[in-house]
Write a structure and sequence with these properties.
This protein is α+β, with helices and mostly antiparallel strands. Helices cover 34% and strands 28% of the residues. The protein contains three helices and four strands, in the order αβββαβα.
């Protein structure tokens, strides 16, 4: 995302709460062989665009659970 576009979008959304709903979320979670939960960044334009501004805007992202660990974390209200 270009710097100018990001600045304009941040100015527009500053102080607002953004709610996103998409098929894929910004991360997919899985368990390593040792049993620890690990995350992998999702791909796609929507994810790339919004991940760059998540630190500047209050975002709640709803998406489909794509793995058993995604579902487990979603049911616990964490991700």
């Amino acid at each position: 995302m270009s710097t100018i576009y990001k600045e304009r979008l941040n100015d527009l959304l500053k102080g607002s709460r953004l709610i996103l709903a998409s098929n894929r979320g910004p991360y997919t979670f899985h368990r390593s062989k040792s049993g620890n939960i690990e995350k992998s960044r999702g791909g796609g334009g929507l994810i790339s665009a919004f991940l760059s501004m998540l630190s500047d805007v209050d975002v709640t992202w709803f998406s489909v659970a794509r793995s058993d660990v995604d579902k487990e974390l979603g049911l616990k209200g964490r991700a």
